[in-house]
Design a protein that fits this description.
Cofactor: FAD
Organism: Methylobacter tundripaludum
CATH architecture of the largest domain: 3-Layer(bba) Sandwich
Enzyme class: oxidoreductase
CATH class of the largest domain: Alpha Beta
Shape: globular
Number of helices: 12
GO biological process, one term: 2-oxoglutarate metabolic process
Radius of gyration: 24 Å
GO molecular function, one term: flavin adenine dinucleotide binding
Length: 477
């Protein structure tokens, strides 16, 4: 049976996560006839635009963390404010409903933007046939069809990595997405992986009352961050009650009697841990399986990432890959968004390159961690002459008033030119404060420029000002 063919488009975007929907909207804004194909559906079987980021990732995690913080504060922090509350309980079902309502609202807003910009939205599985044609198989199992376009943008995102020995059943051994949909607080919880995802999930469930243990295979905690910040984070999270076991390599995880027994090895030998739930948060992989037909000859590396050049172009003319599908930058939403905009503008004849060196990174824990630029250890390894300014958050009046005094701002500048090389923050609202740091570095500011910029007082941002001033009193190292 011959497959039905639809009218050609200027651009077809496969995937409606942050990279995909941003790219589709920008393409339409630039006058390109655009279609976006997405296969995500919620538990009700309805289309839910936004990808993992919205449905089972950052936004869902942030919504639950906010609820968990309120619950924890009501139980532990009210007395210092002269407020008393008795018999505070957490209704996990209602908490999940609030999270799902936020997801539905944001997903609906994306759909509204698609409609406003006349983007053809297709809920279906998509397969790249060649550089001009895509096969779509609707979710309702109606006959597949073929659509064509001058340009095709691949933006299918990523999914959790499977871990040998810890087979996910999403009942007792669960992935990071299911960890945001539990119907009860586990009494004892283990998480494989103490990276960004593992720490964010730990911050939610530990505040809701779960005894939480993180098993991290690496000997170094948060190796991608500045290690002074990482040491401070380790101290704070441990004092909050998280149990961080480094150098712990999981060998197996077995279910039995409604429990999970986790066996792992560290420098002291082999250990067994019995928990109610085990979350596997040991990394993510690109969603490229069955993305392209074999005859399309789309070039992938050995780990499934799409090979692209510095302009996000694949080996196929007119086919681009963005977001988590490439190794151009880390798997973070705003990187994908910027690539989506970049590719759309490139197709329209504009060229505004991305500065991958100044992508901010954030760990949405409490306190948050945020950074941009180089770490101290990387700069010292390169032999760069540097100077460092540090300002503790507890020295700001706003942090004291909030009762959120843990953390610091660390600024690293070149010892000779005073150019800003890296800015690292751990503290409440670090994700908001890092924007100023990114802007300063994007405009090639010096630490003196930051020190001479007037900051409103009292604000948390005064800690950035204070760290810049501290640089003026230190010798280079």
């Amino acid at each position: 049976m011959q497959k039905k063919q639809m009218q050609p488009f200027d651009v077809i975007v496969i995937g409606a996560g942050p990279a995909g929907y941003s790219s589709a909207i920008r393409c339409a804004q630039l006058g390109l006839k655009t279609a976006c194909i997405d296969n995500w559906h919620n538990e009700k079987g309805r289309s839910s635009l936004g990808g993992t980021y919205l449905n089972a990732g950052c936004v869902a995690s942030l919504a639950l963390l906010e609820s968990a913080k309120i619950y924890h504060s009501l139980n532990h922090n009210l007395k210092q404010h002269g407020i008393q509350a008795d018999a505070v309980t957490a209704d996990i079902t209602l908490m999940m409903q609030r999270k799902n309502n936020i997801i539905e609202t944001l997903s609906r807003q994306i759909a509204d933007l698609f409609a406003q910009h006349k983007i053809t939205c297709i809920q279906a599985k998509a397969k790249l046939l060649n550089e001009r044609r895509v096969e779509i198989t609707p979710a309702d199992r109606s006959p597949s069809s073929i659509i064509g376009a001058k340009h095709i943008i691949l933006a299918t995102g990523s999914s959790p990595v499977d871990l040998p020995g810890a087979q996910i059943d999403n009942a007792f051994i669960i992935d990071s997405g299911m960890a945001l949909n539990l119907d009860a607080v586990p009494k004892r919880l283990a998480i494989i992986g103490a990276g960004v995802i593992g720490l964010e999930l730990a911050g939610i469930w530990s505040r809701l009352g779960a005894e939480t243990i993180l098993l991290e295979a690496q000997e170094t905690f948060l190796s991608m961050t500045d290690q002074q910040i990482a040491r401070e984070a380790y101290r704070i999270y441990t004092e909050q009650g998280l149990e961080l076991r480094l150098g712990a390599r999981v060998i197996s995880a077995k279910k039995g009697n409604k429990k999970v027994t986790v066996e792992y090895q560290d420098s002291e030998g082999t250990h067994a841990l019995r928990v109610d739930k085990l979350i596997v948060a040991s990394g993510r992989k690109p969603n490229t399986e069955n993305l392209a037909a074999a005859e399309a000859d789309l070039l992938l590396d050995e780990n499934g990432y799409v090979y692209v050049d510095e302009n996000c172009r694949s080996n196929l003319p007119g086919v681009y890959a963005i977001g988590d599908l490439t190794l151009l930058g880390p798997m973070i939403a705003h990187k994908g968004i910027e690539e989506g905009l970049f590719v759309a503008e490139q197709i329209a004849g504009l060229h505004n390159p991305i500065n991958y060196d100044l992508l901010p990174s954030v760990v949405f824990t409490e306190p948050e961690i945020a950074w941009v630029g180089q770490t101290e250890q990387a700069l010292r390894a390169m032999g760069e002459p540097i100077k460092i300014g540090i300002y503790p958050l507890k020295a700001t009046a706003r942090a004291q008033a909030l009762g959120q005094t843990e953390g610091m701002v660390k600024i690293i500048a070149h010892a000779e030119t005073d150019a800003l090389l890296g800015i690292h923050i751990i503290g409440t609202q670090a994700s908001e404060m890092i924007a100023e740091a990114v802007l300063a570095m994007e405009f090639s500011a010096s630490s003196e420029d930051l020190a001479r910029t007037i900051h409103a007082h009292p604000t948390l941002a005064k800690a950035l000002h204070g760290a810049a001033l501290a640089l003026k009193t230190r010798f280079s190292t």
